[in-house]
Each structure stands twice: as C-alpha cells, then as structure tokens.
C-alpha cells in the first residue's frame, strides 16, 4: 500500500476568491480535493488595484445592477465594498474548512489578480480558480507563468460524484496523473476511467497493462481504448463529461498547451492539470 505522502502530493492548495458564486464553487471543489488529500486550504482574495486607479480618475462612473443611473466611482465606497467581499470570502473558507476539518488560512493582497495569484502560488502546490469568475485574461497568465498544478472549475457547488477520468499514454506525466487519480478514487469511493489511443490492439493491451500497474488495485478501473492515432484535439468525450473529475498531465502528456487551453474553456466538469512536481 502506498504511503500518505504518495497519495497527497498537494500539501497546500490555494484557491483564488472574489466572493462571486463562481469562485465559491471553486472553493467547494478545492475543499473536496483538500479533504481527500489531507491538504491545507488557503483562500486568496486580491483587491484589484486597477479598479482603485480607475476610481481615482475624475470622469469614472459606475452603473449599479439595481439602478439605471450612473454615479461617480467613489474610491472610499469601492474600498468598503471590496473589504466586505473579502470578509464574505474569508467566512466561506472558514465554513468549508470547519465542515471538512481542514487546516486553513486566508490572505488579502493588493495588486493585479493574475500577478498576485502567480506570485503567491510559489507557496502552494496547486491553484484552484473558477473559469467564469476568473476571466480568460487572468487564467491564461497564471497557467503560463506558474509551474504549479491548476484546478479549473465551472459554476457548480462541487463536482457531481462520478469517475476520475485520466487520458493515458504511459508517459511519466500520465502515470503520475493516474497514480493521483487512484488515490482520489479510493478516497471518494468511485471508479477510475482510463482513456487511451493506440495504433493496434497490442498497443492498447500494453497501455491497459501499464494503467493497471499504476492503479495497483486501489480502485475499480474501466479502460476505454480507441484504435487510431492520438487525437489532434481534445476528444469530445472529455468536453462532454459532467460528472467526476478529469486529471491530466500538462507537461508531457497527450495534449499540447493549445489543446489543454481548449479543454479549460470547454470542459463541463472540473479539470486538474498536473505540472512540475510539487514544491518542497
């Protein structure tokens, strides 16, 4: 049996928050993952300084959602609203941490969201962001600049219970993804679904044997092999999954950075992208 260290490479999980329902969904997913891996959960709220710079301009206006009339963008009011959102975010982290009995912390930083998240990620092993809450302009720099694993979620309270799906080609990255998936599946009591592509039946049989060796009987495994070349684009089956979790290697796996970016934009269930080995 593998040690807890083998099953929990992510000792510190960072979730970027802005108090929106989308980012709170990312928090729920990150908390579920932290509970399964016995990791520390850290919430990070970034006060966007670009907004304060904009508010300082004499011609800046805002139109509240509940009103049809524009009003001056007041820096003092903006700061109060920002701190109120940070308080809500902190309360949400505390709530899920107490529910799942997690070690937790909360940080407030000032600056640009993508810059601060990337810098703070050096103290973490995994970054969790909500796709709808964090605009593509924020996710892309974080994904490109940080070498930490990335958990991208959609607007849902937590992943609907289902298989942990792993695209597999027997590379070092895919083996690492599958070993992590095995630990998660065992902790959550679900199955592992392995997707593979091979030119021949013999190639698929070899991949299936390699997958079974990685899982080592930790959880039930289903193997779905397709005869043919590796897909030139993320297969539709990955984009259509709406239950469970997708785990894949981001550096030396099946898909290019462009294909992974497409998955981040289109996947319907949470996507966990592994990168370099977690920090020390």
What does this molecule look like?
The protein is an alpha/beta fold and about 280 residues long. The chain folds into two domains: about 5-60 and about 70-155, Rossmann fold, CATH 3.40.50.620; about 165-275, 3-Layer(aba) Sandwich (Rossmann fold). The protein contains ten helices and twelve strands. The chain has helices at about 5, 20-35, 50-55, 75-100, 115-120, 135-145, 170-190, 200-215, 235-240, 255-265, and strands spanning about 10-15, 40-50, 60, 70, 105-110, 125-130, 150-155, 165, 190-200, 220-225, 245-250, 270-275. Strands 5-2-1-6-7-12-11-8-9-10 form a ten-stranded mixed β-sheet, with helices on both faces. A two-stranded antiparallel ribbon has the order 3-4. Helix 7 (about 170-190) packs across helix 8. The chain is elongated.
Overall mean pLDDT score? 81
- The backbone outline, from C-alpha atoms, is elongated
Describe the biggest sheet?
10 strands, mixed
Residues in β-strands, percent: 15-25%
Which residues sit in consecutive blocks of at least 5 with pLDDT less than 50? 1-7, 133-137
Strand order of the largest sheet: 5-2-1-6-7-12-11-8-9-10
Total DSSP E strands: 12
- CATH class (first level) name of the largest domain: Alpha Beta
Percent helix among the residues? Answer: 40-55%
User: What is the CATH fold-level name of the largest domain?
Assistant: Rossmann fold
Question: H/E order of the elements?
Answer: HEHEHEEHEHEHEEHEHEHEHE
Named at the architecture level, the CATH assignment of the largest domain is 3-Layer(aba) Sandwich
Rg calculated over all Cα atoms? 20 Å
How many helical stretches? 10
